[in-house]
Write a structure and sequence with these properties.
With 210 residues, the protein is an alpha+beta fold. The chain has a single domain (6-161), classed as 3-methyladenine DNA Glycosylase, Chain A (Roll), CATH 3.10.300. 15% of the residues lie in helices and 25% in strands. The chain has 3 helices and 8 strands. It has helices at 90-104, 107-116, 126-132, and strands spanning 6-9, 16-27, 54-59, 63-69, 77-88, 151-154, 165-168, 186-189. Strands 1, 2, 3, 4, 5, 6, 7 and 8 form an 8-stranded antiparallel β-sheet that branches. Helix 1 packs antiparallel against helix 2 (107-116). It is globular and about 45 Å long. It binds a DNA duplex (13 and 13 nucleotides) through strand 3, strand 4 and helix 3.
DNA sequence: GCAAAGATTTGCT
DNA sequence: GCAAATCTTTGCC
């Protein structure tokens, strides 16, 4: 179970930790919404490799997205991390967001805007997760399960309450034909404020999953 | 070798 | 609610 797991970046004072509260699954060559739909290419090569590895790519020419490879080698599948709820290192996340925004837009304006953000909005979108955790394409292929990785995953602490998991159709894949367009392969913690896409973060239209 | 579109975010009308 | 920003990857000539 990856939903509820912790994403950890760095060590010591600059350590950033977030709980994964929103995910999307992209599974197999036949999933017409997945980057794997064209077969193995230079970009998606790590999706065809061993599980537990990071797949990082650039979308729309400006935003990075983080995925976790999930299936055995030869079967391309990954989970897109769409949103994370900050647990530790909020200040560092804000700095990372400001650094990244400053490179593209007016620095002072971006700084003030990000300073005002509630912590639940620091990583509430696939591009924002990477901005807050300083994830770039150089992290493509990184082993997320190795304890000494710069970026790694940890299981949710034992004893935590079970999360109210809801499902729905994936976001931003309007180019894909049915049935892929409507597959309920988006998983999120119902009602959690860090979930992206305001208005679609409540249970009701989808079923409660495992 | 060139044209088109994309697993997004933000700001303005 | 709509369009811009921005550049890599894919697809076709």
């Amino acid at each position: 179970m990856v939903l509820g797991a912790l994403l950890v970046s760095g060590d010591g004072p600059g350590r950033r930790v977030g709980r994964i509260v929103e995910l999307e699954a992209y599974i197999g060559l036949e999933d017409m919404a997945s980057h794997a739909r064209f077969g193995r290419t230079k970009r998606n090569a790590v999706m065809f490799g061993p599980p537990g590895v990071a797949y990082v790519y650039l979308v729309y020419g400006m935003h990075n997205c983080l995925n976790i490879v999930t299936e055995a080698p030869g079967r391309p599948a990954a989970l897109l991390i769409r949103a994370v709820e900050p647990v530790a290192g909020e200040a560092e996340m804000r700095l990372a967001r400001i650094r990244r925004a400053g490179a593209h837009a007016d620095y002072e304006r971006a700084r003030q805007q990000i300073e005002r953000l509630p912590s639940s909005r620091l990583a509430s979108g696939p591009g924002l997760v990477c901005a807050a955790f300083s994830i770039e394409r150089g992290h493509d292929g990184l082993d997320l399960c190795a304890g000494n990785s710069e970026l790694r995953l940890c299981d949710a602490p034992a004893g935590d309450e079970p999360l109210p998991v809801a499902t729905g159709p994936r976001i931003g894949i309007g180019f894909a034909p049915e049935p892929w367009l409507s597959r309920p392969w988006r998983f999120f913690v119902a009602g959690n404020p860090a979930v992206s896409v305001p208005g679609r973060n409540v249970a009701g239209h989808g079923q409660v999953a495992e």
